[in-house]
């Protein structure tokens, strides 16, 4: 079973329609560069102004969406409740994000080239061995990344409002606007802000896992993990060890269904864990993660404690009329790795591109069919990746013996290459049939050993 899953994993990473979108919003260093769309659609023209779109939430999804909209001729308003928001997050981003989103290297704290995968019995496997000299996993602080993307959206022409969306009135008739009620903290009225409303032709909900936009369109709920993280300042000496190295810990102690991590940042490490099934135990799991890394973080000072939900799967509804959800609001985090930053920025951009295209650069009204194009493209491009990571999580995170097998498998260079290539580039890397076969045999071997070990352990605990 595992071998089939792995084989599909390697075969199903796709490049197909992605290329088109890259051409559409080709990253440039000139953030003002506009792009033109020639579409043929019989939607009514917007008169006296351009299409107005409100983007709610200024994380990676909102920042990327707002920049693309503004560059595409849309009147864009980005509402973010906290402009210095430190989103609780490990901040690991794939190499392709740096290129695709034209990120300057000075916003990346660390370039990780060594990753240690550590088993329940503390067997450590180094899994960065196949990386080429220019390849790395980027480590960012979210307050830095998010502010950068938002500022770039503003430079492209978006109006950024420091405001909290309270609720949204849906249009009363076809083509009439959405009315957004929000607290505006830009106003010089003290900390409480000022209640205001604004109208928009379309709305992008990029307001994260607790999305109010999603509630307003009855998008439905999703299962979620709770993730906990501590930023720990350690001595310069200890920091040297983590200079370009990250750690992932697996085991029932750190998480029954996820993993614990130590990710390096500019002057501290981020230590965290997550779980769907044992949310009430999250602090206990965090202590266990800290304990596993104790030799390396000893004497460290906790400088920040943070926690946040991570969606487990897409919401039942992601588009309604002229409202679309992107990023965590839509539920785009992969299982197994818990990765969501790239997918947030990517979905924000993809959704905005669909609006720019459907509105012919802001001169025509959009409708649900325009927004659905974003969904179709998204699902076609990424659905297999989500599915495969879901299967991998079920196979390898289910028990300590299975995790031991997983770590054992990670020692294989072929596994490392395929895993890193798919993580770093998010696209199809053709597998080598002979190595695929070898891997399948090894995987089955590891799992058989894992199951035998589990049976032995079960006997012991009777
Ligand atoms: C502890 C933890 C560790 C993680 N580690 C990683 C990792 O290493 N790598 C990775 O790729 N992913 C990681 N993730 C997942 C990643 O953080 C998310 O997938 C990503 O932040 C989603 O981006 P987003 O823009 O959709 O939402 P968010 O980043 O949540 O941004 C939403 C924004 O909307 C704003 N907002 C919310 N409500 C309102 C409102 N009503 N009005 C106005 N503004 C509002 C918020 O202030 C916020 O700025 C981690 C998550 C957690 C919790």
Automatic annotation (TrEMBL):
Q: Does the keyword Oxidoreductase apply?
A: yes
The pathway that the record names for this protein is: Cofactor biosynthesis; tocopherol biosynthesis; Porphyrin-containing compound metabolism; chlorophyll biosynthesis
Q: Which reaction does it catalyse?
A: phytyl diphosphate + 3 NADP(+) = geranylgeranyl diphosphate + 3 NADPH + 3 H(+)
A Pfam family that this protein carries is: FAD_binding_3
Q: What are its E.C. numbers?
A: 1.3.1.83
Where's the FAD-binding domain? 52-82
Name its GO BP terms in alphabetical order.
chlorophyll biosynthetic process; photosynthesis
Q: Which GO terms describe its molecular function?
A: FAD binding; geranylgeranyl diphosphate reductase activity; geranylgeranyl reductase activity
The UniProt entry's GO CC annotations, sorted and at most eight, read: chloroplast thylakoid membrane
State the UniProt keywords alphabetically. Chlorophyll biosynthesis, NADP, Oxidoreductase, Photosynthesis
Query: Superkingdom of this entry's organism?
Result: Eukaryota
Q: State what this protein does.
A: Catalyzes the reduction of geranylgeranyl diphosphate to phytyl diphosphate, providing phytol for both tocopherol and chlorophyll synthesis.
Q: Which NCBIfam families match?
A: BchP-ChlP (TIGR02023), ChlP (TIGR02028), GG-red-SF (TIGR02032)
Give the record's family classification: Belongs to the geranylgeranyl reductase family. ChlP subfamily.
The name of this protein is Geranylgeranyl diphosphate reductase, chloroplastic
Q: Which organism is it from?
A: Olea europaea subsp. europaea
The uppermost taxa in this organism's lineage are:
Eukaryota, Viridiplantae, Streptophyta, Embryophyta, Tracheophyta
